Structure of NAD(P)H oxidoreductase RTN4IP1, mitochondrial:
Amino acid sequence: MLLRQRFCTKSAPKVKTRMGTQMSAWQIFQYGGNEELTQTTTARVPNILKPTDLLIEIHAASVNPIDTMMRGGYGKAMINLLRQGLWNQAGGTEFPLILGRDFSGVVMETGKGVTRYKPGDEVWGAIATQRQGTHAQYCIVGQSEISHKPKSLSHIEAASLPYVAVTTWTALCLVGELTQKNAQNKRVLIHGGAGGLGTFAIQLMKTWGAEVTTTCSTDAVGLVQSLGADVVIDYKTQDVQSELQRISGFDVVLDPLGGKIPSFSVDLLKGWRNSKYVSLVTPVLSSTDKFGIPLGLLTTATNFGTNIIRGFINGRSYRWALFIPNGNALGQIAKLVDNGKIEPVIDKVYTFDQVPDAFQKVEEKHGRGKTVISIKDS
Ligand SMILES: NC(=O)c1ccc[n+]([C@@H]2O[C@H](COP(=O)([O-])OP(=O)(O)OC[C@H]3O[C@@H](n4cnc5c(N)ncnc54)[C@H](OP(=O)(O)O)[C@@H]3O)[C@@H](O)[C@H]2O)c1
């Protein structure tokens, strides 16, 4: 376990135009298992097509559960709709598909409408699902999807945070309505505290003064305590449901895992208005994959409505959250990092040649913090 593992940050490379040349990348040509991941040195360096887009040289990226799921075709119905340009997002073709949703790197070129960044700037970001991904030497991002990277971190350290940080921000702040001002002394339950998302969420809530309860395996108890968790339930040796019921009355419950957790977690909330159960396991993408877009959305809406009614009966609210790119949130998180409030938790760093090994590790779902790929220095 590497808590705040230190790597050298290299100075920004000489800026030069790379448009129209070739790059190294990991691609898939059809959905499937890890055997579909193909390394190439002749992928096309992407072009800037929108004025607010930038070309980034990627120094490091992370692997998230969404990458292994997208490799298998998860979300393809909705993501293809987005790729076709509906909802006004620049997407592109389905295959060959480069996976990877976050990065730390350097701006190489900017579109004419980019106001906040210039070539040579060190930035980090988490990009929309319909974009070509970050497991490559270069990628295109929108200026609203990135911010300046924390100065105190190397690219490898920085790459561990954007996707989980932005997802946590959406879940706890935008959907759970917690802010730096109102989180003080709020009781927050974070299921799965040892993973990439949990290790960030614990730190953000502790920084804002919340009382944090979390669940994890025996070997991770020390890790989540070192991040500030006030109450830790070991789900390998304790009866999680009865332990949590004993101390129930949470203002917000964050559930990244699903399974049996929702069946008892909504009842752990305070029994009056303004307590919220926020689930990161939404059926919208799997339902649209299974039933097609119209029926899938209808099924999801019905499911959501049922849960809302269940929550309302008890005066609690049941909400879903999904990753949404958010450069503003990343800017605020970069300040917290540079002020020493939040540290990256890195489980393992892989070289660019080892991307399939990194996918396998994430697919095993036993993360202790994040899995990162070193790209520029591999
Ligand atoms: N909706 C969205 O937009 C969105 C975005 C990001 C993430 N997510 C979801 O959030 C989940 C977590 O993401 P991540 O990046 O943190 O994954 P991760 O790094 O693989 O971590 C998963 C963690 O969950 C723990 N865990 C598994 N079962 C548990 C249980 N019953 N009780 C407590 N802990 C348990 C695992 O620890 P053990 O080894 O002890 O089992 C592991 O530490 C993933 O399922 C992901 O798909 C959703």
Observations:
- Residues 1-18 have pLDDT under 50 and may be disordered.
